[in-house]
């Protein structure tokens, strides 16, 4: 990846932007044990305001393309403005016509949901491709949305206004075109059960050759657990042509979104690309480089990033970025969707996998908890403390796109309404605005999900969060309560006087006038115990100015004494309903009162007092982290209380010193990625502190070793009762294609015996057949996994018939629920859909339905929190019932989670 964090580059960009000179920085000491002092990285996009829009649901600029040229039948064209799962009519011309509206929010970047040509309707899903995630042609715009020329016109006009256009792209899958000879949408088959085979029938592990020229030739008749087939007439449906080769897909059945199948399984039948195959890697790079070169696209949001193997990103990201730079796109930016709320995991994609940024799902969770649920303010402080996970040589948390809701999970307005039942309109609106204030004033690039500026709510995610801004005909949308307005979805909602539209525009205006509120160093200052004030500073490192931001998530006014770097200085209000001016005490503490459910921002007068000398700095002993054994926690102790930046470097024994990140807020630390190193590899670390006057001080060198891997046995379940066979599963940290995990068994406390080994990453499994051991009931078996010198936890099971803990309720939600007397379809809590538990431990339900083809699932305890689909997979694909009409009996076994219909 092209380095973007050198001091020279950062300073040069600042000078060019401001036309002013910076204070000269003292040269770092020449000692061999002193690291190079650097400024904390600010990528080119730390000042973007994103507007995330689904073209089909925004504005209908031309009715001529509503049906995509496929005719009036919705089952063919996918166009039906009365149904939330079908095309509703929006298009790129509509976006072009409404650029004034978008720009009025302070938008600097428009992010479009996928706009390539989709399979208009997938009958198995009873839905259309309005959302853009069922692509068949990666080279042209979906005809429902317009043409390639319409896109070019939109991009050109946006560029003329100083706005960028980002594409939402997919590398993980295509539309559901490939079927299997064995049946449609089959359950997942693991690599250990059925390994991949070469065209000659020899088994191999794809991770061993991922992305390399050693990847073997494949044959669809022998290489996969299922035999891929194409319907007549669809053999050449996909574009580019290489996408029609069934050897370039995983062909393992549907994912359950967990473990190995999260990488290899089909998403509800969508054809899962073999991203380990070099043809796929090169093909995807070619596709998206063409859109950069020919249309001037400014960046990509990348769908389903965590479901693609690491090796793909390690090549795709740097190569595409370099290509964009070669096209003159110096600010080209890519960020991925990693749907997870743990920073140790989400950050791996920007550190280990060489990508620029990821969508900040952890922020969304923290912001909702603070603003909507009035969670303990200290939790927000802990959240920002974890930003160091993202710090490395070429990226950090300042470039992460932050958001409050989206098209998959739901809207912030809906969350606020759900979290505060019975609350008045004023409170709901205030909480919504508070969430946006937190998003705009804290680090990161704020993303507005279209319609949130009009108070859209909705009861949930997916189709329930995809309302149109133009007048809707969808019954499910027409009964939504919008925040801050008496309007409904029955009319256009482009109201520039809506309070949320005006608030968001004002926030963009304030941060545009005071850019330190967007890219200044984020310093934790204060957190109340319980609901109350959370406060932080943003530091303009060029002008040495401090801003104090205080947010109050309680329903009463709160006062707090907030530490600053500025003793005896005046702070002037630039946002919010607080006092016009406050003055800090001699110790720098400023007393601030914040009204309920609101925010205030103050700017200090003058510069932060200059440091007279660099403080002393030393390194703690580096050690593997608990959250990620492939990373070393390297932390510096800095003896001082002013504004500092600490740069870290590392090297292996005898190697060159390499920058591994610069941290601009205490505690000063990085999480150095050493996953690629062999256990026991010698490491050396050093750091240098840079004060606000340009003085530097070095830490000296400390030594460490790359850690041994950690292996964890995840199955069998502890204290389970087993009969005949025991399913074993283990994972390794860090995960490597070269790992070989052995499984060991102990019988009734006896000696450990190796029973099998597995080298098939990323999951290590084995089925221990105990049927021939002639073990009496109540015999205890213990299992563990071994990797090199690392030994896992132990799981204990007992021989005997399994005890099934039955749920309180089991239902059959599906497309036939309304036929059964339910008020609608897909209702897990409908009384008529509930099953009855029999003496044999099986659940049954017999109902009369009209003949037809229906989809259904199994839901536990009257909610979607636990549900099962095809193959008994948790959260698996819908099952399909073709019935002639009359009585049908559903039978469900909670031991296997399988359901049948007869």
Description of the structure:
This protein is α+β, with helices and mostly antiparallel strands and 902 residues long. Among the domains are: 518-604, Sandwich (Immunoglobulin-like); 617-703, Sandwich (Immunoglobulin-like); 710-799, Sandwich (Immunoglobulin-like), CATH 2.60.40.730; 810-901, Sandwich (Immunoglobulin-like), CATH 2.60.40.10. 17% of the residues lie in helices and 27% in strands. The chain is built from 16 helices and 51 strands. It has an 8-stranded parallel beta sheet. A 6-stranded antiparallel beta sheet has the order 17-18-19-24-21-22. Strands 35, 37, 38, 40, 41 and 42 form a 6-stranded mixed beta sheet that branches. Helix 7 packs parallel to helix 8 (310-326). The radius of gyration is 29 Å and the shape is globular. The protein starts with 6 loop residues before the first helix and ends with a strand. Residues 1-32 have low confidence and may be disordered. One of its GO terms (molecular function) is cation binding. One of its GO terms (biological process) is carbohydrate metabolic process. InterPro entries: A-amylase/branching_C (IPR006048), GH (IPR017853), GH13_cat_dom (IPR006047), Glyco_hydro_b (IPR013780), Ig-like_fold (IPR013783), X25_BaPul-like (IPR054409).
Q: From the 3D structure, determine the CATH topology of the domain at 810-901.
A: Immunoglobulin-like
Sheet bearing the most strands, described? Answer: 8 strands, parallel
CATH architecture of the domain at 810-901: Sandwich
- Continuous helix count: 16
Q: Write the CATH homologous superfamily of the domain at 810-901.
A: Immunoglobulins
Which percent bin holds the helix content? 10-25%
Oligomeric state of the chains present here: single chain
User: What's the arrangement of strands in the largest beta sheet?
Assistant: 14-13-12-7-2-1-16-15
Quick one: CATH class of the domain at 810-901? Mainly Beta
Q: What percent of residues are in strands?
A: 25-35%
The low-pLDDT segments are 1-32
């Amino acid at each position: 990846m092209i380095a973007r964090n050198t001091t020279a580059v950062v300073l040069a960009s600042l000078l060019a932007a401001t036309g002013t000179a910076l204070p000269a920085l003292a040269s770092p000491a020449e000692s061999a044990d002193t690291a190079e002092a650097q400024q904390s990285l600010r990528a080119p996009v730390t000042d973007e305001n994103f507007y995330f829009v689904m073209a089909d649901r925004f504005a209908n600029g031309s009715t001529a393309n509503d049906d995509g040229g496929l005719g009036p039948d919705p089952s063919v064209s996918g166009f039906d403005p009365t149904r939330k799962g079908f095309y509703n009519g929006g298009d790129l011309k509509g976006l072009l016509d409404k650029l004034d509206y978008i720009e009025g929010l302070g938008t600097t970047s428009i992010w479009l949901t996928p706009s390539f040509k989709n399979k208009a309707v997938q009958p198995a899903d009873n839905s259309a491709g309005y959302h853009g995630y069922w692509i068949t042609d990666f080279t042209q715009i979906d005809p429902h949305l317009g043409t390639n020329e319409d896109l070019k016109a939109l991009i050109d006009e946006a560029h003329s206004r100083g706005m960028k256009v980002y594409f939402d792209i997919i590398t993980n899958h295509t539309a559901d075109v490939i079927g299997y000879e064995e049946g449609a949408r089959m359950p997942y088959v693991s690599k250990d059960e059925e390994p991949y085979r070469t065209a000659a029938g020899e088994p191999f592990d794809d991770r061993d050759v991922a992305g390399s020229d050693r990847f073997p030739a494949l044959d669809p008749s022998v290489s996969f657990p299922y035999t891929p087939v194409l319907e007549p007439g669809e053999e050449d449906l996909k574009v580019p042509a290489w996408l029609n080769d069934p050897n370039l897909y995983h062909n393992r059945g549907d994912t359950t979104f967990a473990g190995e199948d999260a990488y290899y399984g089909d998403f509800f039948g969508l054809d899962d690309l073999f991203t380990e195959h070099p043809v796929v890697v090169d093909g995807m790079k070619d596709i998206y480089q063409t859109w950069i070169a020919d249309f001037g696209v400014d960046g990509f949001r990348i769908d389903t990033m965590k479901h693609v193997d690491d090796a793909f990103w390690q090549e795709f990201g740097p190569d595409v970025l370099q290509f964009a730079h070669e096209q003159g796109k110096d600010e080209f930016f890519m960020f991925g969707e990693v749907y997870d709320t743990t920073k140790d995991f989400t950050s791996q994609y920007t550190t280990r996998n060489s990508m620029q940024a990821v969508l900040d799902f952890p922020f969304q969770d923290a912001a909702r908890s603070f603003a909507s649920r009035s969670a303990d303010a200290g939790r927000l402080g802990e959240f920002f403390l974890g930003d160091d996970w993202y710090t490395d040589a070429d990226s950090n948390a300042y470039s992460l796109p932050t958001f409050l809701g989206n098209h998959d999970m739901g809207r912030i307005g809906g969350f606020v309404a759900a979290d505060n039942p019975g609350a008045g309109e004023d409170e709901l609106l205030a909480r919504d605005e508070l969430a946006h204030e937190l998003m705009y004033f804290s680090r990161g690039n704020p993303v507005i999900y279209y319609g949130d500026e009009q108070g859209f709510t909705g009861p949930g995610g997916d189709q329930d969060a995809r309302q149109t801004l133009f007048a809707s005909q969808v019954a499910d949308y027409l009964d939504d309560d919008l925040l801050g307005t008496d309007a409904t979805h029955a009319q256009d909602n482009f109201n520039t006087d809506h309070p949320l539209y005006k608030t968001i525009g004002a926030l963009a205006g304030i941060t545009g006038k005071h850019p330190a509120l967007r890219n200044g160093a984020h310093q934790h200052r204060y957190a109340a115990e319980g609901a109350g004030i959370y406060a932080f500073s943003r530091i303009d490192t060029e002008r040495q100015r401090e801003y104090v931001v205080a947010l109050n998530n309680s329903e009463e006014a709160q006062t707090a004494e907030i530490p600053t770097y500025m003793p005896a200085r005046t702070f002037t209000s630039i946002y919010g309903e607080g006092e016009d001016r406050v003055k800090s005490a001699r110790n720098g503490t400023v007393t601030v009162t914040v009204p309920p459910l609101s925010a205030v921002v103050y700017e200090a007068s003058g510069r932060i007092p200059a440091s007279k000398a660099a403080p002393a700095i030393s390194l703690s002993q580096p050690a593997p982290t608990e959250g990620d054994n492939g990373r070393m926690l390297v932390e510096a102790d800095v003896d001082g209380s002013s504004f500092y930046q600490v740069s870290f470097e590392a090297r292996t024994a005898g190697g060159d010193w390499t920058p591994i990140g610069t941290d601009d807020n205490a505690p000063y630390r990085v999480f150095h990625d050493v996953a690629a190193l062999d256990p026991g590899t010698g490491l050396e670390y050093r750091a240098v502190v840079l004060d606000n006057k340009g003085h530097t001080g070095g830490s000296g060198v400390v030594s460490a070793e790359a850690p041994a891997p950690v292996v964890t046995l995840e199955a069998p379940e502890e204290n389970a009762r087993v009969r005949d066979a025991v399913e074993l599963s283990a994972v390794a940290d860090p995960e490597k294609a070269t790992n070989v995990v052995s499984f060991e068994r102990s019988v009734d406390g006896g000696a450990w015996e190796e029973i099998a080994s597995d080298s098939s990453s990323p999951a290590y499994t084995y089925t221990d057949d105990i049927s021939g051991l002639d073990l009496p009931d109540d015999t205890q078996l213990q299992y563990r996994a071994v990797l090199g010198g690392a030994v896992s936890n132990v799981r204990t099971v007992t021989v005997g018939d399994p005890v099934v803990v039955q749920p309180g309720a089991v239902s059959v939600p599906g497309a036939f629920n309304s036929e059964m007397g339910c008020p609608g379809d897909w209702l897990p809590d409908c009384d008529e859909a509930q099953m009855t538990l029999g003496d044999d431990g099986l659940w049954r339900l017999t109902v009369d339905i009209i003949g037809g083809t229906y989809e259904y699932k199994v839901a536990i305890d009257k909610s979607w929190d636990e549900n099962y689909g095809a193959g008994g997979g948790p959260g698996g694909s819908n099952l399909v019932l073709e019935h002639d009409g009359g009585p049908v009996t559903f039978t469900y076994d909670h031991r296997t989670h399988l359901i049948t219909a007869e």
